[in-house]
Amino acid sequence: MSFLFPMLAWLGVAAAAAPVLLHLINLRRRKRIPWAAMAFLLESDQQHRSSVQLKELLLMAMRVAIILLAACLLGGLQAEEGLSDWFQRAAPRTLVLVDDSFSMADHSTDADVWRTAVAVAERIASPPTAATGEVTTVRFSELIHAADDEMFAAAPLGGEEARRRVRLLEERGPSQTAVGPAEALRRLAAISNRDREASYTNLYVVSDFRKKDLTTADELAELVDEAAAGAEPRFVHCAPDRRGNLSLSELRLLPGARAAGVEATLRLSVTNHSAIDAEGVVVRLTRDGAALPAVALDTIGAGETVTRQAPLRFATPGRHTLVARLDADAVPADNRRFLAVDLPESHEVLLVDGSSGGAEGRVFAAALRPQGSLRTGWRPEPRANDDPSAFDGLEQAAAVMLLDPTRLDSNAAAKLRAYLADGGGVLICLGPNADRGALGRRIFADAKTPLLPIGLDLPTQVAPPPDGAAPLALREHPLFKAFQGERNGFLPLIRMAMRWDLRPAEAPPEGSAPAERGYRVLAQTADGAPLILERTSGPGRLLVMLTTTARPPNDAAAPAWSNLATLPVFPILVNEIAGWLAVGRTRESDLTVGTRLAEGAVAARQANAGGPPDQSPAASLDPPSPAADSAAHSTPLLSSGIYSIEYPAQPTAATASGHARSVAQPRWTAVNVEPSEGDLTSTTTAEVASLAGGRASVVTADAFLDWPKDTRNASLGPWLGLLLLAALAGERALSNACSYVQARPAKASAVRGRV
């Protein structure tokens, strides 16, 4: 048995010698004074000397004890080993939360952050001195993604089971998740509020405490209070100062036709999480296991992100993989990024045409699928607007274009709404045949829930632009790439004759933000009137063009509203519009590590991304039965890579025999790490303590491991406080008994009354 004396307690011990010294000094200051009456007094002193000396010695001892108790109380005296069990009412329960986000794999210098965290967990679970109680070691990823009963099993302190769990922690290494201390404490608080039995005497959070993971001071302090639930929280800081690290932060295809044989544009980005420039950065690409030309980024400035674009083509339809890799650095998990592509032969674009003679449908179809060997990846499907089945099968279309619609009944409007809600894209070109009443009632401002809050007024002529002025003012937008750079010479060739005006009440106020009106103006005529509008709220993408592109055939008297269809750049513009609208239907599936399988998923099988796309799966994850709580217990994807996620079979169209056939619907999906986790900017213990509002003690891992004694000790503060109060009361009583404290004199009036 022993006590732990902090430095302040030792200073108190030294100060306790002061009453003894003062007592001895006062004894030596006595002077012998001869006096005739001393004989009587000496005789009386002989009779009472023993009791007086005893009282004085007791008073001196009491004052020494007061100083010692006050010093130990202020110094935080703790009891260890067997005494700690005596001072605690129950055996201590210790919970150790270990950060296993992939930033903990940092090994850029002599320090290995993960091994340091494991050493701290081992010291807590197996103390160097004998101790009783239980310990539970939980990884952050388990705390977030595992069921409650799978992670809180306790083991005896210092026992073989506690050591085995630490060894398992070391063998498994960091995960690929990005769970930070704040998120872990939030989850622990939720569990503690639900299960009051899950309370602990000691709470340790072992983490690298990266700056990006810490929330505001007020919120973090509140989380500490809620998660600790009466336990004594301690933070062990394992990371040194900021390290240099590169992250592959982006790998995707730009909007366009994702189809076999069609050239796409690959966009990749690398972020330098460092205080110094990164030189000679090269990204290596692999397509379906075959190497592609590397992309050189050369120098990336400190804290900067560099983006490059490159052409990419997949020759055959079906499943394909693309893997980007960086050279090894401080953290390996973010040096690799995956892209999963499942390509059809072409994508259907539904053209619902109400223009005179089908003029609009013909020019759009020719632009989407020109004759000859040129492949665009689009398959136009023309339909007459007055056909009752014109809007059937919208779910099969990558994009829908309403060209000068003459009618729009409630059934068609409902199908368009459902299509947009499912991520579809719709273009509406308004010409002379447009039914503004039906459009207004069904989808524009007069609808109960408008898809676009605009009201159509009347068609009006467009005034020619002033000499030297551009006929259109275009915003910076991917749709207008055909009019930028070297191609901007086409913009002066545009002619606008007619357009639809907006009702004055619905016209966008000057300077109003797009979010305030639910849409933004992408193009304006020379007089400032809106011409192309884009919806900015809600799912799906909706574009409205307040003019048409072609002249009606065999009608020379009918005015051409614009000359867009006659320009060489028109096919490029139409393909850009189709690609922009189809993003929600053709975009590659990309999930982040830690994401749970979507509701209804049957299984997720991980494929070998380095080999051919049809190679057998390397791993498989089977979610729980449908009876389980899918929101809380669905299987998370905890490893990056390429997955084939299977969903229940869906009935398809009837076969020739008349029987409906059901097929599984696997989804080819890339799962990548969260790139921001690669930012290794760390904090100091003082910063963490400040953010925690003083609710937790914060110590570095080195200081924690250098402490030669066990860290689970009982605090003697309450006991010392009680003893100090008792000592103060005893000192007062002895002072009175020794006549060092005189009674208060009686009031003069009372004295006179007794005379």
Could you characterize the architecture of this molecule?
This protein has 755 residues and is an alpha/beta fold. Residues 611-619, 623-633, 651-663 and 748-755 have low confidence and may be disordered. It is elongated and about 145 Å long. An eight-stranded mixed sheet has the order 16-15-17-18-24-23-22-20, with helices on both faces. It contains 20 helices and 33 strands. Helix content is 29%, strand content 25%.
Question: What is this structure, in a nutshell?
Answer:
The chain has 755 residues and is an alpha/beta fold.
The unreliable regions are 611-619, 623-633, 651-663, 748-755
Give me the oligomer status.
Answer: single chain
Strand content: 25-35%
What level of helicity do the residues show? 25-40%
How far apart are the first and last residues' alpha carbons, in Å?
A: 65 Å
Please give the order of strands in the largest beta sheet: 16-15-17-18-24-23-22-20
The average pLDDT is 80
Which structural class do the helices and strands define?
alpha/beta
* Major sheet attributes: 8 strands, mixed
Count the strands? 33
Overall, the morphology is elongated
Rg, Cα atoms, Å: 40 Å
**Count, helices:** 20
Supply the key terms.
single chain; 755 residues; 8-stranded mixed beta sheet; 6-stranded mixed beta sheet; 20 helices; 29% helix; 25% strand; elongated
